Amino acid sequence: MRPIHTLAFLSAVLFTLALVGWVMPREGLALGGLSLRFPAPEDVLRRPEVARTDIGAILAMATDDEKASPAPAPQALEELEARSAFHYPRGDHRVLHNLFAALEKASGRPRPLRVLHYGDSQIEGDRITSYLRNKLQARFGGGGPGLLAVVDPVPSFTVKRQHSSNWGRFSVMKYRGMPSPHNRFGAMSVFSRFTPALADGASPDSVSQSATLTLKPLAKGYKTLKNFQVCRLYYGWHQAPVELSLAGDGRVYSHEVVPPADRLLIREWRLDRAPSTLQLTLNGPDSPDIYGISLESQGGVCVDNIGTRGAAGYEFGRSNQALLQRMYDDLDVELLILQYGGNVVPGMKSAKMAARYGKDLGAQIARFRKMIPGVSVIVIGPGDMATKVGDHYETRPWLEEVNRALREQALAQGAVFWDMYAAMGGRNSMVSWVGADPPLAATDFTHFSPRGSRKVGELFWKAFIHDFDAWKAGS
Question: pLDDT (tens digit, 9 = 90+) per residue, 182-194?
């Protein structure tokens, strides 16, 4: 082949590839489980510049387990404080004043002031929540990890769970657990059983089974974690008597037989001191549904970590509302923290879809307000999430629209909004978090590392306590 023919052939190939790259959508074409992408001609000829976010002020911000770093410039600190501040409905800071007043008196309460931190996989394993819990309990009193599920797919950062192999987990996220014949999932959106789940009225097996759950606060956890004096069990809906016992550090606190029940039961044990290990044992032919076991103090603050992988925040409507109401009434919830949005971003296709999602979560906030009169609500939007575009990473499409929709709906429903995306640094900040040394986020460019989770907790806490101190100074 003559050189001129070779040149003509290569030119034709390059022209064809350039044409395909020009007409191909930048996000590529979905082919089953694969995505086909071509670089645009301008990306080949001139590599696009991706703006990197300066997170120096965040890196210098010390968390409880870090030594103080050299302080950044005052302007950088002011900018960080401004973008991390709470957003209030109509700018009215009085929205949280009742909560602040209750916190001020929390140490003298007969029951702890309850904070439920709901979220997706970003808070699984007590990430972020554990840091906030320690801050609140150190400032306002209280102790213990709060509500715990019997079975959790992710190991906890704070409590080691050991359970017999016959326990099963049933989740409001149907594909995340075993199939349930009913919708009574409770305040944790999950329940656990050691015998098969039966439809109401079905006859259980006559053979008794025994099951155990052992809880041990981890030594590496925060000091307040081990400061609990109360153990509470939420359970019910068993069709045969069940033996129930609680023991800790070789001491049996109680052993009793619970008659069959078709309602929520609540058992409370008062402990003279917090044992290093606590064991719950049940025996019977039909397991009760276990909705949670809570280790808490007699006063102060109790913060529950309720992370549901894959959740978007509107799944509460799938649960039996009467059971939810009963549990919330007993828990006496003062603050709901709702941290969602990340799971809908990858599938988002338009600003209209983002707005619709915001309205769905807004409707859930309204449902919570009706169910828990007077409750304070803080909504945390999604953090930055990056996806690969060519040979670099950029903020995912439509994330900012989702974040904006959540903010608008939260404020419209009288809730406070904390913009985690802005607090992190905004657009393309996740790239800087992943690239930090040591890393603040995982290489999936979505989830925080343990160190990053503490940074997020500190950013939120600074915004929260800033407004509390401002209220206290003016009260």
Answer: 999 999 999 999 9
